[in-house]
Every structure is written in C-alpha cells, then in structure tokens.
Design brief:
The structure is a single chain. The chain is 7% helix and 49% strand. The protein is mainly β. It is globular and about 55 Å long. The chain starts with 5 loop residues before the first strand and ends in a 22-residue tail after the last strand.
C-alpha cells in the first residue's frame, strides 16, 4: 500500500483560471505560495515554494466564486506529475496538486463581503477518483 497525500497552507498567487471542458466538467487552476522562515547566520531568511493547484467540478466552481489572489488557503490533496510537448516538441513535466478539500483561512473580512462564504468545501463522493490498491510484486520485505 502507498499514500499520496499533501497538506498545504499558503497564499493564492493569482486569481484562479476557470474552464469548462467539452464534457461539461469544470476545472480551476492557480498557484499557491508556501513560505518557511529560518535563521541563517543569525539572520532571518525565508524560502517560498510555488505549487500548481488544480481543482475539479464543485471545488472548481467554489474557486471561481470565492478564491482570489492573496487569500490564505488550507488545501488537502494529492501530487500528480504529467508531461506535455511544448511548441518546439520538447517534453516538459509539471507537478500539480489535485485538491480534495479547500478551506478559506484568514479573517472573515478577507472573504467576499456581503455574502455568506462557505469556509470549507469537503470532497464530493462522485468527484473522487477510485483508489485502487497497488497489486505490484510481493517483495517479501520485512516492513
């Protein structure tokens, strides 16, 4: 058995790009920045990582309505890497976080004013890909 799970708390880098595919499925994509602060030679330093977030169906609809640049989010999901060919036929790889749970963080005033913004969106049963256990070779490993 293996696990692919990621939990991120960070700030949205730009407003989500929202699309409706030919089959009617909706998708939203946006960058999320996470930062860590540490001391180096007695001075505070920070390192920022950028994550490509992908939300599908109801979560994509939620993102279109409520998620904006600068907002702080909690996201649970899984890491996926895919490849594509650029215009020069070079193979490129991109790592993305497919979100299953999204929660808005920060002050209530940071969210859309004048409306009741949901604070958390759990996964919908019909939106989760079926998880199939790995039936690879039995290695007889001691752990």
């Amino acid at each position: 058995m293996s696990i692919n799970k990621v939990i991120l708390v960070g700030n949205v880098g730009k407003d989500p790009e929202y699309r409706k595919l030919d089959n009617g499925v909706t998708v939203a994509k946006f960058p999320l920045a996470t930062s860590e602060v540490y001391k180096k030679n007695g001075e505070k330093s920070s390192n920022t990582e950028w994550h490509n977030i992908v939300l599908w169906r109801a979560l994509a609809d939620f993102a279109e309505k409520y998620i904006k640049k600068g907002m702080q989010l909690y996201i649970e999901g899984k890491i996926k890497t895919r490849s594509y060919e650029d215009k020069d036929n070079n193979r490129k790889y991109i790592t993305e976080i497919y979100g299953d749970v999204v929660q808005l963080l920060g002050k209530k005033s940071d969210h859309t004013e004048g409306s009741e913004t949901p604070n958390i969106v759990p996964p919908q049963a019909e939106e989760i890909d079926e998880i199939v256990p790995d039936t690879g070779p039995n290695d007889d490993l001691p752990f």
